[in-house]
Structure formats: structure tokens, C-alpha cells
Amino acid sequence: MTMRTAGIHHITAFVSDAQRNVDFYAGVLGLRLVKKTINFDAPEVYHLYFGNEMGSPGTAITFFPWAGSRRGRIGGGQVGYTVYAVPTGSFDFWQERLHKLNISFALVERFGETYIRFADWDGLGIELVEREPGAMSKWSFGGVPVDKAIKGFGGAVLNSIAPDKTGHLLEHVMGLERVAEEGELVRFRSTGDIGNVIDLNRTAMGWGIGGAGTVHHIAWRAKDEADHRAWREHVLGSGYRVTPVIDRQYFNAVYFREEGGILFEIASDTPGFDNDEPFEALGQKLMLPSWLEERRAEVVRGLPPIEVRVLEGDTP
């Protein structure tokens, strides 16, 4: 059976401070905090989700802010750069914005596109690229107007310890099309109009070290729960060790580590982040799974207070 993912569902990373994380992704990048919950396996740690107005599949970046955690080192077996798509004609705005907020950046070229490359305050690699495809975000916050707002993921740059094997997986298991080569990069494209362009370093890299400023995993889209079950069987049948289906409240998940060392997840597009709170209130309340609700007071006491706030550089 031929299966093709539409592209990236979400990307999850480690950071060191919850409020700084909110200030960067909501304050600097203008994304919406669409879900404030906890790491189901470590309830003393937040799990924060940022994206477009709904946190739609292909727009959601998620974080575990672990206070005092060690700084990681980006390398093999990891996402090297998380790429965001911004509207055509917004490049000058984003360069001016980063300059105003004292965030250093560089311009890089590949495959005929220009990227703004920078890092968040924990060192996580980020790129912005203008793309015509993909729906415009309807969310505006702080100094980011809706017509300049990040649409969602443009894609990612992957670092592998065995790039030939990672490339084979992308093409022959995940169903991406190998479309171009340039220098040390191979470009793959999925069927979606966002989160759909993957650049793979074809030079094998030594292992990265997990920690703040590194990506934990990259998740790929399945249309619904039935498609998700089919994906699990497909990956199992391709020779990979896959976890059982795990209910993550807002999507179902399975995980496997591909031979290049990168932790992959396949996540269902449904049910979505409005599963347990209305659209207007997304991200405002700490949402807990049912088995932790009776411990709410204890969980809240163990978490630092956070707020979505406009940065000083954006105030009149």
C-alpha cells in the first residue's frame, strides 16, 4: 500500500524557562499559545503548544520548559532548523522586527529561496521563508499584524547519522517525493501546502546531545484515527519498531526512531486543540488529563506562573 503523509504535524523541543519560551514564541514570533498543559509523563513540567489561531496541524510548535536543564547540542539524530513559512512580501517586516528586538540573524540561500536564520533564546535553530502556498494565519499579537503573521511550518532541515537511510525512509515509507539536490542537501516534498518541504543533510553527522535548545521529535500527519492506525501498521510492516497508539488528548500518537537517529512521531489531525476548551479560550487555562484533575492544586503549585504578554519593544 502506498501511503503519503501531508507533511509535518508538529515539532516538539526542550527549553529551559517557561516564561522566556512564551515571550519568544508569542511575543517575538506572534504565535498563539493554543494549549497550556503538562508533560503527561512529568507533570511538574509544562507542555506548551503554539501555532496559528487553532494550532492547526502543520502550524504547532510544542515545548517542554525544564527549569535549570542543561543546554543541548544540535547534531545528528535531530532537527537542525525548524522552518516557518511567512506571507510573500513580509521579509522586510521580519528583518526589521528581529533587528528591533535585538535578535541577530543571517540571510542564507538554498534551492532558489532566501531564508532568515536565527535562534531562540535557548539556541533552537529557526528559519523564516516566504511561501505563497498555505492559508494565512488569522492570529495577530503584539507587534505582528495578521498580514505578516507566520502561516505555519515551511518544513525542517534534518541532521542524520545515516542520511541514506533517513532519505530512504522519507521517500519510501513516509511517501515524500525527492525533488532536488544542492550542495550537501537533498530536498523532499510532501503532499500538503504547509510543513511540506524537508531538506536532509546528506553528510553523516555525529550525535547531537539532547537538552534545552534542541528538538525532541518531529511529528508527521495522519488524516484521522483510522488513517493513523493504518500508518502504524505501515511503519511496522516496513521493519521499524513502533510504540502502541498513545492518546495525547488532542491527537493520537505513535513513535519510532528511524535509522538516522531522529525520533519520528505520527500524529492524527483529529480531534484538535478545541477538544477540551472553546476556540475563544484556547491556551488560557491549565488543561489537565482526567487522571490528574484531582491533583490540580498540587500540580499548579509545582509550576511557575506564566503569562502571554506584549514585549517592551512592542509597546508605544
From TrEMBL:
SUPFAM superfamilies: Glyoxalase/Bleomycin resistance protein/Dihydroxybiphenyl dioxygenase
Keyword flag Kinase: no
Domain VOC, first and last residues per copy: 7-131, 152-269
GO function terms (MF aspect): dioxygenase activity
Keyword Magnesium among record annotations: no
Keyword terms of this UniProt record: Dioxygenase, Oxidoreductase
Descriptive protein name: Ring-cleaving dioxygenase
Source species of the chain: Paenibacillus ginsengarvi
Phylogenetic placement of the source organism: Bacteria, Bacillati, Bacillota, Bacilli, Bacillales
